[in-house]
Amino acid sequence: MKITKTDGHAAMTNRIAFQGEPGAYSHQACHEARPDMEAMPCRTFEDAIEAVRSGEADLAMLPVENSTYGRVADIHSLLPESGLHIIGESFVRVHINLLAQPGTTLDQVETAMSHTVLLGQCRGFLTEHGIHRRVGADTAGSARYVAEVGEPSLAALASELAGEIYGLEVLARHIEDHSRNTTRFLTMSREANHARRGEHGMMTSFVFQVRNIPAALYKAMGGFATNGVNMTKLESYMVGGSFTATQFYADIEGHPEDPAVMRALDELDYFTEKLEILGVYPRDPRRD
């Protein structure tokens, strides 16, 4: 079983990298979780990861799943290869707002621009007000575009932070269809930290591939049930485009040094070809 502990001493930058434009929901997550750090926008998830690996940033904030739309594409396959470690989780309530040029009234807005996911999360409001949908590359980028164009008939769906950054007014707040729309983010670091104990408990994330024997996955999971370890997430995805090589990503409650978790991981290790701990970190109380 691979549980890496690193004692590197790279120079600190006090920056946290995220994917997207300033004002993106990942930017909001950085502000909420690490208000003392400078948020560093990156073009792609890979760029955010590389910023930490290269020492350009100390941490990366990566979205992994949304309560409405499920997991974020590509993230689970990127994490094991990133060389980084999960040191925290954050749950961010995704409030969607209609942003427009200062002085614009709601009845002037004909089209709303945003990422396709956000457009889908505000169908009720947009239909009620007869507002057409226009797909943008991302949420904050749409807000920036609306600010640059300066056309009252065009608005953006984005965070209030994006409105503040690009000088837009909020015409309507919290217009999402689902009142509990939340995104879970993981904070990534070059160094693992397994010494902490969270006030609300601990989480352990890992990936594994089962051995090619009958009922291997069933037997591997048995150790968590018999030891009373709560598995909050189990997902599978293909490795290298192969239909026969499947990797599993799992989150469990507890610390690898807890006796019950230790026994469960030992049993899992017996039935796997690969088992890699991605992170041991405090449980966010907003899980509840």
Automatic annotation (TrEMBL):
Domain ACT: 205-282
GO cellular component: cytoplasm
Keywords in alphabetical order: Amino-acid biosynthesis, Aromatic amino acid biosynthesis, Lyase, Phenylalanine biosynthesis
Enzyme class label: lyase
Site-annotated residues for Essential for prephenate dehydratase activity: 183
Annotated InterPro entries: ACT-like_dom_sf, ACT_dom, Chor_mutase/pphenate_deHydtase, Preph_deHydtase, Preph_deHydtase_CS
Ranges for domain Prephenate dehydratase: 15-190
EC number(s) from the headed UniProt entry: 4.2.1.51
Catalytic activity as recorded in UniProt: prephenate + H(+) = 3-phenylpyruvate + CO2 + H2O
A GO biological process held by the record: L-phenylalanine biosynthetic process
Highest taxon of the lineage: Bacteria
Keyword Ribosomal protein: no
Pathway: Amino-acid biosynthesis; L-phenylalanine biosynthesis; phenylpyruvate from prephenate: step 1/1
GO molecular function, one term: prephenate dehydratase activity
NCBIfam families xref list: PRK11899.1
Record protein name field: prephenate dehydratase
Species whose genome carries this gene: Salipiger mucosus DSM 16094
